[in-house]
Amino acid sequence: MKRIVPTILLLCVSTTFLYARSEALAERYLQLFLRGSFYLANEMQSVKARKDYTVDDMQKELERLRENYGNYLFIFSTETSEIRGYTVYIFHSQFEKGYIDFNIVIDSFGKVDAFVVQPTLQPGAIPDYIDTSRFDEFEITIGNDKWKLPGVLTVPKNLDRYPLVILIHDSGALDRDSTIGPNKPFRNIAWGLATRGVAVMRYDKRTFVFGEKLSQALPSIETEVIEDVMNAVNMASKMPAVSSIFLVGHGLGGKIAPIVAARNENVDGIVLMATPARRELEVIIDRQKYVSELFYSDREQQQLELLIDYLQRALDGKLPPGAPVLAATAGYYYEIDALDPIETIKKLNIPVLILQGGADYESTIDDYMTFMNSLWTSLNVYFQLLPDLDHYFMRVEREKSTPDDYYEFRHVDLELVESLFSWIFVFD
User: Fold this and answer.
1) pLDDT > 70: what percent of the chain?
2) Which domains does the chain have, with CATH numbers?
């Protein structure tokens, strides 16, 4: 298996046309690979990918697949997610002797920037801490006619009353499962909690469903995220069996949770998972620096410096609100900074839990300590550090995770599910 590290996106460019074509590009690349047309597939890769994943590598990869799994049969499902400027496609495929996930990452220039072959035990393999016989799932719709979002409600069986969790996504155009590579952290959390008697509501993010429509207007955290969370809370509050409502926000979603709780009295508690205390652009800059130290050449380091200089100007408030910054505008990041979750939490009188993975390189232990130092006198705020878990609360074997870990087939760790359940059980 060959892993290719994504290259740098220098500055925001218009990607609407390329995004529309990217699935067709990914499908063509995969079919060329499976037919053995390696030179044509190689031409579809980015410059760095061509160097790191050669025609010989492709040929050996396909030979290993055929030797271990027999002939390719068909693709039975496809998943899509957008992660910080890259579009990720997961093609779930059946071979004669097993199942293979092909993960293909398309960059903003319409090139294949990563190709990961991931064998799976079976379609939709689930961790041992989940018992699917203990809950049901129902399709739901969040929002009004203009912004209807498809979602799912996971409900424990044989209970007349139960607490309900609403999951809030991190940044990016994410589906209801917060799919990252071959992994589905939100589904793991939902099914794990429902196995233990907690209902969970999750839905496709507005940027995932209406990405093209939203690209025609100035981005706003209010209309892209907060409105939908408010709609979800209002829906949950009308369900007779729901005993209490908890918001569980991941990453940027953790900054949203206190804002919604301050506005909506139906929220009974909030959880911040892997939420940075730093400003959003500061997180992006630090993340780029960390990744560059691991993977980038000297030339790429020079390119990164140009990007960081530009992002720093936005961080310092030196760009006009309408100036393009990555896939948004400077004003979008100014709006996020104004949320100020710490000051909002200080004014809440509901229970708050702050969870942090010890191996997370995006939201770090320093962020966690900032929350602790600012909120330790608040009797309603609780803290828990989970060692060896990454940004998605999946276990890693190193001191700090890397982007490659996200493309390994893994599950949310049982420790995270148990921590959530124990805390919810106390405050329900």
Assistant:
1) 94
2) 16-120 (3.10.450.590), 132-281+314-427 (3.40.50.1820)
